[in-house]
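Encoded backbone
================
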Amino acid sequence: MSALKIKKGSTKHSAYNLRPDFSDVIETHTLAVLVDNEAGVLARVIGLFSGRGYNIDSLTVAEIDHTGHTSRITIVTTGTPQVIEQIKAQLGRIVPVHEVHDLSVEGPSVERELALLKVAGLGDKRVEALRLADIFRANVVDSTLESFVFEITGTSDKIDAFAELMGPLGLIEVARTGVAALSRGQ
């Protein structure tokens, strides 16, 4: 049986989906989870996903309040609306979790990711890589006679597009931070 990947907005019909209030639409959601910054909390949160077979597309974690020992976990995941609601409810039941926010439904948000891309090339390919980096506002953070390391910040789609264009020019390696996100306004 082959794996079937469903994009946001598409549907997969099932004979078992007899309830009209349930949706087969696979959606991408960005969750911001505020937790105590203590040993084992991240493992418990991630264990919730792995134990139930939920996928994590992006994961970032950092302490946001040194005095209050609070960290923010940003998770990008996909699932039907029912699965997303189940994930949020189960996250909220984990004891060190203080808040769970679904930035995808709470209003406008800002998402950014940082990536480093190593590109090797000589001659025309080297010039073209620099030209494209300028268009994408990527910075050269390291350079040798045979390669560059570019730093690019933006949406995941922007980074994907830049990496795709660098592929034929000599893309060697990519390192990505994962998505950091905040809701807009108050």
User: Anything to note?
Assistant: The helical segments are 41-52, 81-93, 124-135, 156-170. The chain has two domains: 27-102, 109-183. Residues 109-183 form a domain with the Alpha-Beta Plaits fold (CATH 3.30.70.1150). The mean pLDDT is 89.
